Amino acid sequence: MKKINLIYLSILALAFSACSKLEEDPDAVLVTAQFYQNEGQAISAVTANYRKLYESGQSLYNSLIQIGVEMATDDYEAGPRARNAHVRAISGLTHDSSNDRMEQLWKQSYDAINASNIAIDKIALIDEAKISSAIRKRLINESKFLRALHYFNLVRWFGDVPIVLHENTSLAPEDLYVPNAPEAVVYAQIIQDLKDAESLPAPAEYNSKDLGRATSGAAKSLLAKVYLTHKEWANAAQKSKEVIDSKYYSLFANFADVFNVATKNGKEHIFSAQFVGNVGYQGNSLASRSAPADVPGINGDYADALHTAGGLYNSFADNDTRKAITFVTQMVSPTNGQLYTFSPQFNKYYDPAVVGNQSQSSKNLPIIRYAEVLLIYAEALNEVNNGPNAAAYAAIDEVRQRAGIAKLADISPALTVDQFRDAVFQERRKELVFEYQRWFDLARRGADYYVATLKAAGKTLAAKRHIHFPIPQRELNLNPKLKQNPDWVNY
Predict the structure, then answer these.
(1) How far is Cα of residue 274 from the mean position of the Cα atoms in its chain?
(2) Which of 263, 257, 322, 327 lies closest to 290 in space, CA to CA?
(3) What is the pTM of this model?
């Protein structure tokens, strides 16, 4: 009998859907039983699985999370050239379970999980004479890291979601249809995968051709973030402290170097989506989506716009060095040499090497970097101690000092637990703009916080259900055991 998989059923249905404009043609199809035969094939397979993070112009970490998630925050909105009605619905908080971005978030995440599952199962079975034990263990744990990352996104977006840990080769309904697992069970699986992945090599143990792969530091950092999101404060503090104490990472002295092509995969970068434009690989489409459309020769899309009523731009002090890197308000046209001035637009991924074709930007997108680990540590310590201690102040002030602004310990040395929590969230907001963080931060503060923040920013349709996204109706139709998130029933 031909092999089939639960997630592949969804992919097949989506491939024939006329409502999705995303690229869905695979480059190739390989029979897994014939491919995982030796070490070289195993390495190639896992390397290919990393590309599922960013392999097209609307893949998960190449703009899909931005248009499918971040639009539903106080920092972003659909720009003048965001013509897709589903994207504009998310921006205006009128989206529902028929939204095609929700379908793609679900489909692409489970497609990537399935690829990791196959790798984990098949690599374990390769003949011992054809793969070293060290490479076998490393590749399996890299795959567990990737699987954990995708499940972490899914559980935060949709709440209770199905857990699939192996390739399904059966057409039997009891095997094919998988019910929602409770959030706590999903988190337990994520934590177990990341604990296994902690045994990955340290960054220094990889050579240059392996830059971009998951490391022990990446696993520990993501695990710290998982613990923080799950409100396991002591564990979040401990794990982030392990990353800090490892001395593998530090902040760039210049904030611009976080995003410069010449300093990619540097000392602050823990795990990033890898982009290489103009050489047959994939460029960072966020650069094009945020670039000005009205400056001759720039040819930007201006589809991702700053939600000005949210106050993000004005929250930066004038001497904050992050402001001029994060935003741009003027550009000289490469066509006519004239200076154009406009309202603030995002600028982190603008690549001057490809002025007229920003879709080929070679700037990486940080998925987690050392500055965030410092802020995780500060936040967790504040919660553990019911108020900030000296170490919590030192962690947030390391980030603030790099930005050129006053230390929090100098200007507000006696903050309460609530005040310090708010200070960390404001620092995260400014430090991590356009890095797929804002919606996750708002949602984990809870429904009341999310709704109050969005309404204060003028997004008056914000409701408590918006701290999750609706499970796609197409998935509910395909899987009779799948249940809609309770907040989205009847919407």
Answers:
(1) 13
(2) 327
(3) 0.93
